[in-house]
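Supplementary Note 3. Input sequence used for the single-chain structure prediction.
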Amino acid sequence: MRPIKFYLVTDTHYFENELGAGGKAFEQNMRTEQYFVKESSAIVKSTFERIGADKETDVVIIPGDLTKNGEKESHKSFIKELYKLKENGKKIFVITAGHDYNDSAYVLQGDGRVPVEGTEFNDLCEMYRDFGYGDALSVDEPTHSYVAEVVEGVRMLAICCDSKNQPKGTMDERLMAWAKVQIDKAKEDNCSVFAICHYPIIPSVPVFDLVGDAKIKDWRRVAAFLADNGVELILTGHMHIQSINEFYSEQGNRLIDICTACLVGSPAKYRKITVDEDSVMKVETIDVEDFGWDMNGLTAQEYFHNHFSVAIVNRVRGALSGGKGIVKFLKKFGRKRFEKVTVGDVERLLFIKNDKSFKKKKLTDFVGEVGVGIFLGDGPHTEGTQGYTFISGILKRFSFVLKKVEPKLRKDGVEVDLKNMLLNTVGNNKGFSDNNAEFLLKK
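The predicted structure, written as discrete structure tokens, is reproduced below.
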């Protein structure tokens, strides 16, 4: 690949605070939300200021979910921030996604939803004309996918798989045919090609292969199509997670999927990517730092991760609520136990041997840590750690249940090994980092 240097920012979910957000409904929603709403504009402005101060890197790429939920005012305010970044010498390329158009936009105020002006899908190209679409060499009108020359000799295939005119998270045969024409044309013009897409192509962690909306549909087919047509790199978002994954087609061609976290909530990171003269790609992850908000004495990263950890536990609590009769009773009993039980209690019940210092940890704390750790990338619970011993011990005791479930999860002839899938989700065993890594690309 020819030399290029750029910033990668995903899932900005910008919200215009003048629309208003607060009250019981908003606070209830935030109890289980991964990212922040009121803080989003301050985080985006602060991050863009830092990026703008870098005079050596003049390209910024943002693969979708630009606003909170397609509010027209959020788009207007976000575009103002993009123009400020552009005035600092940056060339900006975006694609839009499901959170960017909405015929029935609303904000949460008081006890419920308050309607606000939304954004039509067909208006987005013109709204973001100065940020990619105006530089397009070709646009696929039904999806707003496009191709543009980002720097001389390097073209970007911007795949919009989250449009109003086709099922979300899909790249159908028609869109593939359009993409192939653009890739072939780039080759004829002696240009390198990389791609962006809001949805991950490769599941960010193994267990996400079982989650329908966690990756593009029929992902192996799409990954093979890109790899076999000479696209070795794709930049994605959507899942708010830090991950880097490789896929090899049956023909032996590689696709690298760099999925980047939500900017405005845990993990709150963005990337700087450089490809040098020798086609060595360096991926650097940058933390969102102080953004001028009162964080009660916490660092920005502590503020983000503490909120997400609590949100994960609140989701478990929610799953243990509701129902009727005996189901309601059992859930209530389970919720009470979940609040009080320690890791040691579970280990004694299941005869799991582990380090004594680990046994005093509350199960709720461990669940929150695991959840945050997965999205941070470089999952720490690898073989030999206390967390791995605990999780693998549980999976071993319930192996008979896993074996019964696995055949039902089999898709497209691909067998499912739940134990290995789960262990490779909580621990990074790929041999390279999800955050800072180097790859040698084809020239």
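The longest helix spans residues 300-319. The chain has two domains: 4-293+435-440, 300-426.
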